[in-house]
Design brief:
disordered N terminus, globular, single chain, TIM Barrel, alpha/beta, 331 residues, eight-stranded parallel beta sheet
């Protein structure tokens, strides 16, 4: 285990203070404020993280631990409902355990189209098409499609409220990779595009459901020009600093482009940036040239399919990475 004295002192020195930029939700819980404060203190250090599928929400977290001898600092899973049973209770149970263990919690939401009824199919629903007419109806209060969307949000609010009651802050990154072409909410540019959907979600979760334990992570995909698999410029999909606490991006094939990193840092205007999902881990050279990443989270089985045990260990042993036992955010 790396020396954690610096992390411990830094956290408790700033834990009761306002973050450099306060949470966008002015009613944020003290736990959410404290976590955001902590992320602001990281400087050029980076938190380790691992995603697991909600069917077995610790499986790949445990694989990362077995490979490295260190538990990841950030634990993540997904509210994707692709089985007959709603995964919410299972996710809450595991999040409570992981929080008690000292982990930072990040949750995401592969949600099907509002037209559809769960459980959601992947190709037909999560990656399904939505017409421009239906998109506009979705964004228009009072329409039947907007009401179905509200029902989706109301349902996902329930487990998040349970975590709030337990005092657990969440790095919340819904509708991710919105600048790509593969999800129904993706590639919707302009003020009546994705930006409006994000603000609509924020408003319902914060002002209707009073979910004050969420740190809002806007999570795009690394820009790319692969025909039929494009991801476009970040700026076309960014809803504004009034609705985003942290800006993140996903990088799967080791293409940690310096220009993309610098573009995201510029767009962040001093707010934290993170690697919301990665396949192949960044190496030490990349982290030295891109020092502002707050955390990385390896996507499930990619910890073994895209990485060797040696390169995983190398990053976990790097002096600038922070594993679970190097921090304490439980107080």
């Amino acid at each position: 285990m790396k020396n954690c004295i610096y992390c411990f002192i830094t956290f408790f020195t700033v834990g009761s203070l306002q973050s450099q930029t306060p949470p966008v939700n002015k009613n944020s819980t003290k736990e959410a404020q404290r976590l955001l404060n902590y992320i602001y203190t990281l400087g050029d250090r980076i938190l380790t993280g691992q995603h697991s599928y909600n069917e077995n929400p610790s499986s790949f977290y445990n694989v990362a631990t077995e490979i490295t001898g260190e538990e990841p600092a950030v634990w993540g899973t997904d509210f994707y409902w692709n089985r007959n049973q709603n995964p919410g209770d299972r996710i809450v149970e595991e999040a409570i355990k992981k929080h008690a263990n000292g982990n930072i919690i990040t949750l995401m939401w592969h949600v099907g189209r509002p037209h559809d009824t769960p459980p959601f199919t992947w190709r037909e629903s999560v990656q399904g098409e939505i017409s421009e007419k239906d998109w506009q109806a979705l964004l228009t209060p009072g329409t039947s499609l907007h009401k179905r969307w509200e029902e989706q949000v109301d349902q996902i609010a329930l487990p998040l409220k349970e975590l709030q009651r337990k005092g657990i802050p969440v790095l919340w990154r819904p509708y991710h990779e919105m600048n790509g072409v593969w999800f129904w909410w993706g590639n919707k540019k302009g003020d009546n595009g994705f930006k409006k959907l994000w603000i609509q979600l924020y408003d319902r979760m914060v002002n209707v459901h009073h979910l004050d334990n969420l740190i809002w992570v806007w999570n795009a995909n690394g820009p790319r020009d692969i025909p039929g698999d494009e991801a476009y410029d970040y700026l076309d999909f960014f809803p504004g600093h009034d609705y985003v606490d942290i800006l993140a991006t996903d990088v799967y094939h080791g293409d940690y482009e310096q220009k993309d990193y610098e573009q995201l840092v510029k767009l962040a205007q001093g707010k934290p940036v993170a690697l919301g999902e990665v396949g192949k881990l960044p190496n030490r050279t990349i982290l030295n040239s891109q020092p502002k990443w707050s955390w990385f989270m390896v996507w499930s089985n990619w910890i073994t399919t895209a990485n060797t045990p040696e390169n995983v260990k190398d990053i976990y042993e790097y002096t600038k990475t922070i594993s679970k036992n190097d921090i304490d955010i439980s107080n």
